[in-house]
Design a protein that fits this description.
alpha+beta, Porin, 8 helices, 18% helix, elongated
Length: 506
């Protein structure tokens, strides 16, 4: 019973701050990305983020762009574990987390004069929303699902020890629990930098991005119940009652001079009291914050109809600090820091003007994920706890392509796609934090509303691949149950983004 409570609480609460994963960097900061995707050789205002060295080829003047995006995601884990049948008569359960960010703003600004361009932008560079799991996760429920078996064993031990004549949990085979978690994770980035045109063909960029992390987590575990015959009862209340009864039996035995029986009942009372305390309702309310600086360099080569852009963002060392209001778990002590690095990023883009009204681009992104410090995870082979970056075989690779067509003098249409491929091991993947490879698609249009004013609109969605993880010992249940029980998790996601933006030149 003690293992049950402690493991359950750890799994539920630890899942909250990690569900967003260690591999989440937002590259969709401008609507031009949503409607074309391959923007790494851009020389438009969105180049402030995607290709800052390309700003050297802007028209002279002050350029401003404001963008808003609405993102809607789901994270679905389909978990199969035989003991789940004790709650709903089905060994397979679907846990769905919904995340939404109704409004994600970004601001771009650049001033170009001669060979120099000075630029800045503000955006949500990582995370970007809230997620709610109304029914917890399989990693937590798998521990709770063992309650019927453990209650039966506990009752039998009391019978064997002469404390009880009949096992009150002989027919216990069901359970229920009310678990809930909600979290938000955002990284705000403020970037400043300067671009210089060395020659008519070559320019370079240097700058910094200040990153501020703001996370918030709420969760609870309450009303853990199991059945006594056909009636569901609260485990905490039941064990509290047993503890009081054993105390009374111990007192009566002492009065009767039955010292051995008195000691036996006292021991049972202490055990029941401890277990009752461990199964009582628990709550968490904690914020986390931290900051770090990202150095950025870039170069752009432009010759005729061709343009090549390169950018490198250095690894950002970052920790988040707990600011805890309520923590019944003891896991989020105020002031404790957790690694939260932003991985370094290399982008390369090539664009070509096929016709005066038709342009095509390709791009490549590589995230050096193995160099970034992340929260700990368990090695499934050795059982060792270590940073999740150690369970990444190689960094994330993204391949992008897009095309843009000037339909007329005042309207453009564009479309593109992106392939994202993760190189991760099973030990990285859990229902608390998982990454799945994907294909993303986007399309949209740009409209010239006035001489210096342009409107961009776009729709972007992602098709994710399912990732299946099979366990011989599901969630290491053998540490609790004394035997390995197999199980399986299938991870999946959905993602849809709508965007609208205005570009203006003074």
């Amino acid at each position: 019973m003690r293992k049950l409570s402690l493991i359950s609480i750890v799994l539920l609460i630890v899942s909250i701050p990690t569900f967003a994963g260690g591999l989440l960097t937002n590259t969709n900061q401008h609507v031009l990305f949503l409607r074309m995707l391959a923007r790494d050789a851009s020389t438009d205002i969105d180049a402030v983020y995607s290709n800052p060295a390309g700003l050297a080829f802007l028209e002279d003047g002050f350029h401003l762009s404001f963008n808003g995006q609405s993102a809607f995601q789901t994270r679905t884990i389909t978990s199969t574990f035989a003991p789940f049948a004790g709650f709903g008569n089905n060994g397979t359960k679907v846990y769905k987390g919904e995340a939404s960010a109704p409004f994600i703003p970004s601001l771009f600004a650049a001033y170009k004069k001669g060979n120099w361009a000075f630029s800045g932008n503000f955006a949500v560079t990582g995370g970007g929303g809230k997620a709610t799991f109304n029914e917890g996760l399989g990693s937590f429920e798998s521990q709770v699902s063992m309650i019927p078996k453990l209650m039966f064993q506990a009752g039998q031990s009391l019978v064997d020890g002469g404390v009880l004549q009949v096992n009150p949990f002989a027919k216990t085979n069901r359970y229920s629990v009310d678990s809930y978690m909600r979290g938000k994770q955002m990284i705000f980035g403020l970037q400043l930098g300067a671009t210089y045109k060395i020659t008519d063909f070559l320019s370079v960029f240097g700058g910094l991005r200040m990153n501020y992390v703001s996370n918030g987590y709420e969760g609870h575990i309450r009303n853990i119940e199991t059945n006594i015959d056909d009636k569901m009862v609260n485990v905490n209340q039941m064990l509290t009652t047993y503890a009081e009864q054993f105390k009374q039996m111990a007192a009566a035995a002492e009065i009767a001079g039955k010292i051995e029986d008195a000691q036996k009942y006292k021991t049972a009372a202490v055990m029941a009291s401890q277990y009752a305390g461990m199964t009582k309702d628990k709550y968490l309310d904690c914020d986390q914050s931290g900051w770090g600086v990202t150095p950025i360099i870039g170069a752009d080569f432009k010759m005729g109809k061709w343009n090549v852009g390169v950018k490198y963002e250095f690894n950002t060392k970052l920790n988040v600090e707990n600011k805890t209001r309520v923590d019944d778990t003891g896991l989020f002590a105020p002031g404790v820091n957790t690694p939260h690095d932003i991985p370094s990023l290399l982008t390369v883009g090539v664009s070509y003007e096929i016709l005066p009204v038709l342009r095509a681009s390709v791009g490549y992104h590589h995230f050096f994920d193995t160099h970034a410090r992340m929260a700990d995870a368990t090695n499934l082979i050795t059982g060792e706890r270590t940073g999740k970056q150690n369970f990444i075989d190689k960094g994330t690779n993204e391949y992008l392509a897009g095309v843009e067509w000037d339909v007329c003098k005042w309207a453009q249409v564009s479309a593109g796609m992106q392939r994202t491929k993760y190189g991760i091991e099973d030990s990285y993947q859990s229902d608390m934090s998982f990454a799945v490879s994907s294909y993303s698609f986007g399309f949209g249009a740009g409209f010239t509303l006035a001489k210096n004013l342009k409107l961009n609109v776009a729709y972007f969605w992602t098709n994710y691949e399912d990732y299946t993880k099979e366990w011989d010992d599901y969630n290491n249940i053998s540490a609790l149950a004394g035997q390995a029980i197999p199980g399986k998790d299938v991870f999946s996601r959905t993602n849809k983004v709508f965007g609208i933006g205005l570009d203006y030149k003074f």
